[in-house]
Amino acid sequence: MLEIKQIRNFLVLAEHLHFGKAADAVNLTQPSLSRQLACIEDELGCCLVSRTSRSVELTAAGKEFQRLASGLMVAWQDAVSSTQAVARGLQGELKVGFTSYTAWTILPSISKNFVEQYPSVSMHLQEMLPMELISKLGAGEIDVGVTFQSFEEGLEYRHLHSEPLCIALPTSHALNKHQALTIECLEGTRFIISRRDTSPPLYDSIMQVCNNAGFNPKEFMHADLQQSIINLVAEGLGVAIVPNSMSKFNHDGVSYWPIDQSPQVECGVCWNPSNDNPCLENFLDLYPDIRDLPISDED
């Protein structure tokens, strides 16, 4: 069986057409180079080089082998480079699941940063519900999830962003006449809210806000996606409490009101620590948990 180094050395000989110069170029003695050539010719069953005391020339078979072997060496080097790049996470693919809410917060910036740092990695983004995302992480169908805070068994979570909640009202709602709006004003109104099994952290935060105000919200309608909730509010079907970043979803039929002393909604990235995709490790290296970052002194 021919070895790569033998083929490489033959190509050097074919380039120089001089045993002494070729041997020096590959750090071999002339007899060693001659033995390697003989091994190749024995393997192929034909003569590749015609030599006299004055010259070295390639035979017709030698020229053909040079042509094909040159392509082989290019392919071999590509294979080596590509394999090493994949092993270092510089090439390959990263499957990212994200919830619709994060498209309004951290997803754009972390995606942009990653593709700028690792342009040869294919980043596949898949929008899904929070609990679907958790399930796919556990099953190994995606590499990383960008979602609400999660402490699912078997998964790791890194906190990247916090924000308060706000009130979303139809612009036609009578409460918009108030100079200021408190949560207590929403008691008895119809709420549009995600089901708890869709996003437990967000649901629990909304319940906390209402319970602190002394009431349980009247869950009139459920919708899984935050954009859907905003659209339903715009149609006058109810009110909602949503993450503050959803106010960027500038709908003509919706007004947004801040909530005093709102609990913070957290989102970040979660992953399965058993996932050995090198691209995942590089991704995580870019985004430390904000709770681990030093607090800068400000004047």
TrEMBL record:
Keyword DNA-binding applies: yes
Family, similarity comment: Belongs to the LysR transcriptional regulatory family.
A GO cellular component entry from the record: protein-DNA complex
Superkingdom, natural source: Bacteria
Record SUPFAM superfamilies: Periplasmic binding protein-like II, Winged helix' DNA-binding domain
Pfam families xref list: HTH_1, LysR_substrate
Protein name per the record: DNA-binding transcriptional regulator, LysR family
PROSITE patterns cross-referenced by the UniProt entry: HTH_LYSR
Keywords for this protein: DNA-binding, Transcription, Transcription regulation
Residue ranges constituting the HTH lysR-type domain according to the UniProt record: 2-59
Entry keyword annotation includes Transcription regulation: yes
InterPro entries: LysR_HTH_N, LysR_subst-bd, WH-like_DNA-bd_sf, WH_DNA-bd_sf
GO MF assignments: DNA binding; DNA-binding transcription factor activity
Gene3D superfamilies to which the protein is assigned, alphabetical: Periplasmic binding protein-like II, Winged helix-like DNA-binding domain superfamily/Winged helix DNA-binding domain
